[in-house]
Amino acid sequence: MGFGTKVVTGEELAASTPVEFSAAEYGATEFPIVQAAVMKNAHDLALVSTALADDAEAAAEKYGVVEGTSFPVFSVSFTAIAGAADVQGIVPFTIDGVPAEVTVRMQTGPAISGTDLRDATGTIHFPDFTNQIEYQDAGAALNEELKAEVLSNIVAADLAGKSVTVTGAFQLVNPASYLITPVDVVVN
Hints:
alpha/beta, UCP033535_lipo, TM0957-like_sf, DUF2291 family protein, 37% helix
């Protein structure tokens, strides 16, 4: 029995123990990377929306990112006059060059829904996580970091009537309604 026993040091034991996932640490570490990637890959929203209207499949292939079986996510930017925010902090925009039948809105919180940021880069994949809960927590952590780093100084009600430049991402769930999750908001 003594010959079959392996003695391990504390360091070896610690190295072999799985690291517990920390959503807060993940969000803080990964948000700047995701933000930079969305900003680098952002296309003009009018261009993307026109391409989607012409041929959604071709537009998704050219401008979008598809993660697994999800709808495509598009990184976009635009400058437009903000409308009046609703009680959920959703700000509408009318954007030159975007088809009139398409509603464009930006979420500002307090709740940020969706996994647009997690899925926008095409570099964050389900197999990178232990399970579905961690994968969902990663998306929520990015949204929390967005609120802290970008949206903490934005008051949705104060944007109405102002020219705003937005860079962000949206998942094409409804071709007639784009809900942008911003990574950068500049009031001009």
